Amino acid sequence: MSTVINRPFLKWAGGKAKLAHRIAQVLPKARCLVEPFVGAGSIFLNTDYEHYILSDINRDLINTYQQLKDQPKAFIADAAAFFVPENNTDSRFRELKEIFNTTGDQYEKALLFIYLNRFCFNGLCRYNKSGQFNVSFGKYKAPYFPADELAFFANKLSRAELHCRSFEKAFYQMPDDCVIYCDPPYVPLSETANFTSYSSDGFGVAHQRYLARLASNWQVPVVISNHNTQFTRQLYKGAELQFFDVQRSISTNGEKREKAKEVLALFADKQEAA
Prior knowledge:
10 helices; Rossmann fold; 2 domains
């Protein structure tokens, strides 16, 4: 297997680029890969299925992918126009963030989503209770414009269908000839490390339990990534488990960016549904 990593065009907390090949080796063969939590799409980019069904509850993320898919050349050129020195100031960032939060133009919103992702602090995607993007300016010298990554992503989107929907709906609206990869918001490693609740609705213990039940009972293979904790080990009991460490870069303090313990659960030996 090739060791070349196809990187996503978005910076994404908890992104799977470093783990893509490890996860790809665990995913069973099928015609279609379903991702109910597609995020930045690292697994989509580093696997070779005939068809993909990509879903996420983040409407701005899915809208950006859809705009890129519909008119890739124009979209990439228009996105590049935002990556200029005059847009790399805190005041201009605030202006463009306000436009993003108020515009009804979905094409403009998608362009600004890429701008905000690259110019905001740490590439975070976070919303307040009103559903407005509220990450601060990143203060980077010269944010990178991912032209090649956008073009590669756009080309592969020809094999994908896109949906903004919950993971529950993603499970209940999929073909039989598929395998499912789930990368949900991770359970915290400690009571204070709750940075992985990205959607305004949150993703709590009840969601984690429900996802595990779906994976255990569904009649196609399901793979789930999460933190390796006592809770997840119990949650995924009955699945084939792999444990490993991965470097995380989400802490605001660079000295505290230690390796996180992860678990990869494969639910493959299914019984007939009742």
